[in-house]
DNA sequence: TTCAAGTTGTACGATATACGTACGCTATTT
DNA sequence: AAATAGCGTACGTATATCGTACAACTTGAA
């Protein structure tokens, strides 16, 4: 997408190639890539080795990376980049007390996410016991089509946006319940749109089910979703729908009101 | 520090100026700078306006920023930069269950931070009720000298490292109890070193007190600190020290063992 | 041992990249 | 109407950035 010829921003004088490449290097580090050599980074990013080296050394110089006998790792300072977003955006801290309230009542985890391309990104999370194999935190990304929050967010896209999403989509079968074709997904989204909530049962991971509702701004546009996720062996689909869903809806109602009260023009 | 003449990394061919500048722009966004114009960013960073513009447009193109009638804001995608660190470092997710356990027992918030220059950076946090005026989250920075975790981390620096820290220090008086001179700080650190825990009473903010203990790796080196913070009107200093401190020490002991068990060479 | 394949650093010349100055435009304020 | 402050952009320059190429080193296999 960013490499095709139609992409002419890069040909304007406004494109900063080095910044793009530097951010690519930061993102090369992940769950599977904890510590990387210069050559590793070069391979992952497609940058030449000297370029990868220069970027890594610069990140080290700036305190965002550390090198120890040839292996580079990111430092906690990298977190402050993400925190630049959180602290410049008080929207989610408004939601926190209501999320805590929900967690106290139900004993289960509660999260808020927004759509970013084909992924949802967690922007707020209050977790109780750990139930997933991977650790979820603010900043985590998950594929939208396999999550309840993703369904809620996708269901509220415009037809054009949904079309774009569908065209950029690759299905991966996480479990045997994972949605893996467009027809199935479109049907699910239709249901979500009608009932105004979404539920996913072990489509992302065995033993994990969740339920989600949209968060709307003052003008009614959906810009985020909030969910409750629980262990499938402990919480039935019925409990999730009949007991937790009303609480979730109630919490979101309060959050919307609190956000409207702060008059945050960003989401009007 | 990074602008003086002795700083010769910048004169090597390994320094990538544009990346440095781009990261500066991201960090220009903060609590007080939620939405910035091109000129704002230019002033804050000291970059020329066209340069600031090129970087902002590149960030927008890459999806890390959004522009709406002249005002730029960061997007949630920025979080994924910080998450690149978290997901490439499983150290803190090991600590989470023990932190949750502590929070359940005490009902108060629990955090882990590491030292980054003169600041502590939060790398893990389980919060209960909100007690501070600013919202703390993973990625938050606070000045080390005004926090209990900061004291614990500073107390365990080598004399040379502490010397460097002291030389780069500017005291700010947050409350009338804030430590504001080197002698006082050094004395406090001496006490912390001897008792192996630190406590801060309303030095960062009125009505907030906390207590912290060091987290050591297998070879005994302190690389992080864990604390419990509470509302001063609700939890006395004595409760904090006599009831919560032992629980905190117990939790840290378990965390150290769990980390050692994973054989994480990064912290040996 | 020797060879091959992997890593690393770095020199260097080419040029694409990024830069800041300068200018013209618009909007708001005084 | 003048002044201020924001904006975009053209442009020529300079330099920052690039990739190729080469040398040194390590490791493991033959």
Nutshell version of this structure?
The structure is a homodimer of 268-residue chains. With 268 residues, the first copy, chain A, is an alpha+beta fold.
Keywords for this entry:
homodimer, 268 residues, alpha+beta, Beta-Lactamase, two-stranded antiparallel ribbon, disordered N terminus, DNA-binding
How many domains is the backbone of chain A divided into? 2
CATH architecture of the largest domain in chain A: 2-Layer Sandwich
The largest interface is:
A-B, 70 and 71 residues
State the secondary-structure class of chain A: alpha+beta
List the total number of helices of chain A.
9
* CATH domain topology of the largest domain in chain A: Beta-Lactamase
Approximate helicity band of chain A? 40-55%
**Biggest beta sheet attributes of chain A:** 6 strands, antiparallel
CATH class of the largest domain in chain A: Alpha Beta
The oligomeric state is: homodimer
Q: Determine the CATH superfamily of the largest domain in chain A.
A: GAF domain
Distance between the termini of chain A: 31 Å
